[in-house]
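ok, trying the design again with the full structure, not the truncated one.
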């Protein structure tokens, strides 16, 4: 299993304790594939000077296989089992930012452990924004269908009610850069001193 990836910020403003506040719980990014969980989560961790973890990345490292290879060889149910195990492990003692895979928040057991150990943030992007971000990539096995747009729409419609159970919701639209979305997450967290203790 790989080590926790620490953000690489070297200047004082992003060093641990000198960023926008001190993390008391893990921030867990949830939402559809292409919402920006990995990109925004990594940038947020850098801003906070906190560890960054990505469950998809951890699963791939542990298996020494890519996600498409795991789906092809062992199936989605096996992947979901590994995903739950990895999220449980990453939530232990890690006051950092954890980006999950797009399907992770559908599991009731995953939602329960995330709510117990962290704060969930739904990165909410519209269907067309998501489509524009994922359409040219081929590493998402669930979209390897005859009509990937229709598949993405079906997943979106089925999943939004689950994502809506997250503690916080932040919009991730086409007009806003990754850093702009990070600003929104930090603004949302300003209402949660139990998660991000403001610096003096
Ligand atoms: N706000 C944004 N502005 C511009 N590009 C973005 C933004 N958010 C994400 N992207 C880009 O969209 C693509 C998908 O983002 P990312 O991989 O972070 O999504 P994800 O939510 O982690 O998806 P998955 O569930 O498949 O892991 C990446 O190329 C990323 O750089
Ligand atoms: O939306 C999903 O179900 C997935 C999203 C990715 O992050 C990976 O976890 C995998 O491709 C499945
Ligand atoms: Mg990701």
């Amino acid at each position: 299993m790989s080590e926790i990836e620490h953000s690489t910020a070297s200047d004082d403003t992003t060093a641990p304790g000198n960023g926008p506040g001190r993390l008391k719980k893990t921030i867990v990014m949830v939402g559809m594939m292409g919402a920006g969980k990995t990109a925004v989560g990594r940038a947020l961790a850098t801003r906070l000077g906190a560890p960054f973890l990505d469950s998809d990345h951890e699963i791939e490292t542990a298996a020494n296989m890519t996600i498409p290879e795991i789906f092809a060889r062992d199936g989605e149910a096996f992947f979901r089992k590994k995903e739950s195990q990895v999220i449980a492990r990453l939530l232990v003692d890690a006051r950092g930012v954890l980006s999950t895979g797009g399907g992770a928040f559908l599991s009731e057991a995953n939602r329960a452990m995330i709510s117990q150990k962290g704060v969930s943030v739904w990165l909410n992007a519209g269907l067309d924004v998501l489509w524009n971000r994922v359409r040219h990539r081929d590493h998402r096995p669930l979209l390897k269908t005859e009509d990937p747009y229709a598949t993405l729409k079906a997943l979106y419609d089925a999943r939004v009610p689950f994502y809506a159970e997250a503690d916080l919701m932040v919009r991730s639209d086409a007009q806003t850069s990754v850093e702009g979305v990070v600003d929104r997450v930090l603004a949302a967290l300003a209402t949660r001193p139990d998660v991000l203790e403001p610096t003096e």
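Keeping the full-length input from now on. Confidence is low (pLDDT under 50) at residues 1-18.
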